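Input record (one chain):
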Amino acid sequence: MTLFRYLYAPAFAFVFLGLAFWLVALAGFSSVWLIPLLMLALATSFGAERALPYEQDWNNAQGDVGSDVLHAAINEALNLLSVAAIPLAAARLPWSGLWPTHWPVGLQMLLAILMADLGITLMHYLSHRVPLLWRLHAVHHSRRRLYGLNGLMKHPLHQALEAVAGTLPLLLLGMPQAIAALLAFAVALQLMLQHSNVDMRLGGLRHIFAWAPVHRFHHLRYGRAGDVNFGLFFTGWDRLLGTAFHRPDYRVDGADLGIGSQPDYPQAYLAQLREPFVPTAPSGPSPRPPAGLSVRSGALSPADGPADGAT
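The corresponding structure, as predicted from the sequence alone:
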């Protein structure tokens, strides 16, 4: 089991991404085949969460499965439509040839991931600083458990903003449709790994990849204590922003998650879509963090204030 804990995250990421790369880039299959491959990845994630959970209670539904499935299905459908629309958008571009199509496909994919990761990370960072963006992003933070599916649980408007921030420069450069499809698949895999309930171990990889043991600290409900670890794929952007944080001696559990100033955030799908536009007041100040997180360590933000946008 110890070996499984260390191998799970890199094996999940690179095996499924490698299969996607082979299907689309090498074997020439339609990117539509990425849909059943994504379903297989999701089933693998669920199976691993039940075989070796980080927190057993997070495997139990909390009245959230139905809305999480709707969020995931609708958001992924929007992603597919966006990928399908790329040839139409490319035909209207007044320039061509800026994307390095002469590079090996693997390097093109790496470039797309690095550029998208920067844009999405910056939008994520702003979403904890700008009140209007926070109201949209709060939907994602409202859950009191983390598991593979709720990485895709986002308000569609916020998902659209993140998608624009992450992919617009790539599209303007003329990113091919196949690379865009692989990028969308990679993002979905990464969201599963970030929010996974598998009791994985990262070792030195935590300095590179923003997987669950790192990302769980981003979901802390103690005011600004969660203003850390904004990166989607990599932790390097957080080190540049001064927001990288990890405490291997602190175990995050369900009592640490959610929105501290809005513990009764709506759970139903339509109510969550409406909530950012409904005038509401916090039910109280965010709770203070446990002693183990109240002292500034690394890049942990001051934890005694309310979360940005939550006031």
